[in-house]
Amino acid sequence: MSNAIPVIRQADEGERFWFAGGGVFTMKATSAETGGSFAMWEDHVVRGKTTPLHVHPDLDEAIYMLEGEILVHVDGEEHRVGEGGLFVAPRGLPHAFRVVGPDPARFLALTFPGGLENLYEEIGRPAPGPGLPNAPTQEEIAAWLQTSTKYGLELNGPPLPDTQS
């Protein structure tokens, strides 16, 4: 029997975290609530927010764009994904993205199975109110890099440069 519970959250509900890299994550469904099968959060980010090239060896990731646009690097190619678009990174596929569209951007991120959200809960900080955080400090970036492997995230390269605005 699964440990999953019914989850109902409205648009403004869910635990909110400021996260290194220029975003606010709002947890919509955690792996603890879904019996580990998936996790979903809304990411509200500033233009220029980027990820390093990375791999999730044990989970699939999907990003559905609500507002704005991202530039996704996958399989040696770059693709723009705008409002209403979807990007899916199967487990083991190196990928990275940069927010290039109008400020701010919002997307839903899902991971199958869940668990990656625990990284953001561990190294993020509770959002004190509306708005977005300032640029991350060197300490926040170092904590993210050090903690990411604990949650199965493998870093394979630097963040995407800001050349495709």
CATH homologous superfamily title:
Jelly Rolls
- Structural category is mainly beta
User: Helix fraction?
Assistant: 10-25%
Radius of gyration: 15 Å
> Which fold name corresponds to the CATH topology?
Jelly Rolls
For the largest beta-sheet, the strand count, sense and barrel status come to:
7 strands, antiparallel
> How many DSSP H or I helices?
2
Q: What does the average pLDDT come to?
A: 86
Order of helices and strands: EEEEEEEEEEHEHE
Overall geometry comes to globular
Terminus-to-terminus distance: 48 Å
Beta strand count: 12
Strand order of the largest sheet: 8-5-10-3-2-1-11
Residue windows where pLDDT falls under 50 for at least 5 positions: none
Q: What is this structure's SSE topology?
A:
Elements: E1 16-19, E2 23-29, E3 39-45, E4 52-55, E5 60-67, E6 69-74, E7 77-82, E8 86-89, E9 95-99, E10 105-112, H1 117-123, E11 125-126, H2 138-148, E12 154-159
Antiparallel strand pairs: 1-2, 1-11, 2-3, 3-10, 4-12, 5-8, 5-10, 6-7, 6-9
